[in-house]
Amino acid sequence: MSETSGGWLSRLKSGLSRTSEKLSGGISSALTGKTLDAQTLERLEEALIGADLGVSTAAKLSAALAKEKFDKEINDTEVREALAQNISSILEPVAVPLEISAAKKPHVILVVGVNGSGKTTTIGKLAKNWVGHGKTVVLAAGDTFRAAAVEQLKIWGERTHCKVIARDTGSDAAGLAFEALEQARNENADILLIDTAGRLQNRDDLMGELAKIIRVLQKLDPEAPHSCLLVLDATVGQNAHSQVETFKEMTDVSGLVMTKLDGTARGGVVVALAERFGLPVHAVGVGEGEDDLQPFDHEIFARNLLGLNP
């Protein structure tokens, strides 16, 4: 995933504008004096928590700021620069590209997440990118209980010229995944992307279904799936933590994709998730367009979060 023009940067800036306005406003309100004292630090910490960076991350950032600037004269820009630098340091270890192994034919990617998080759209955008780079991609409509999800994936298949393996509504998702891997192997495809259901209200059923999909895939390839992507909707804020915990119980989540950053003031949750779970953040999305999902850049993200130029 790459975009050489400034289009992506401007969309990221625009997408994070609600979060940066909230965070910058909170920082400005906290800095009532010219010196960083205990009271100012407390107000800054509250501003960070209010932007969904989480209690632990906010405390860590405040402590780092106090170490550098306590009892010294400060201004708004200095504080935002210092915070951006420290946030970038937290994010750097998780800013990991999603690598496709040429040794796997196909590289099997299981895509999980709650309904409405943007799983199917993410699959379509990933497929478009890889096809654009000369890869052969097969899509599996594993959310077999939602006809709309199957139809949506078929539309993406047409757009990206990818084969879509689908069955009737209510079909066995594990059987479909097995068939998809067989077909992808027969066609020597580079990548198999498998959509899945996300009905957390039937958590035990979903856990059983995902476990069955993995068991069945491993009959054909003991190492499959080679990647398990959890797609998270940034608008849910701190609820993203419980979603990560839940899906980590169900399957071996290998990385995150954060969607809908353009629709929320809760973009800070990306930092909180990085600090707490340390899972790779492969990509972030800031819109519905086909090119609105791009690799995660820790420094650019951190600076945009604080309303600073990259």
In short:
The chain is of the alpha/beta class and 310 residues long. The protein has helices at 7-15, 17-30, 38-50, 55-69, 76-91, 119-132, 147-160, 173-186, 203-220, 239-250, 269-277, 298-305, and strands spanning 107-112, 137-140, 163-165, 191-195, 227-233, 255-259, 281-285, 293-295.
Description:
With about 300 residues, the chain is an alpha/beta fold. The chain has two domains: about 5-95, SRP54, nucleotide-binding domain (Four Helix Bundle (Hemerythrin (Met), subunit A), Up-down Bundle); about 105-295, Rossmann fold (3-Layer(aba) Sandwich), CATH 3.40.50. The chain is about 50% helix and about 10% strand. The chain has twelve helices and eight strands. An eight-stranded mixed beta sheet has the order 3-2-4-1-5-6-7-8, sandwiched between helices. The longest helix is centred in the C-terminal third of the chain and has 18 residues, at about 205-220. The chain is elongated and about 65 Å long.
Order of strands across the main sheet: 3-2-4-1-5-6-7-8
Instruction: Give Rg in angstroms.
Output: 21 Å
Q: Roughly what is the average pLDDT, rounded to an integer?
A: 93
CATH class of the largest domain: Alpha Beta
Looking at the overall shape, the CATH architecture of the largest domain is 3-Layer(aba) Sandwich
The CATH topology annotation of the largest domain reads as Rossmann fold
Per DSSP E runs of 2 or more residues, the count of β-strands stands at 8
Based on helices, strands and strand pairing, what is the structural class? alpha/beta
Classified in CATH, the superfamily of the largest domain is P-loop containing nucleotide triphosphate hydrolases
- Uncertain residue segments: 1-5
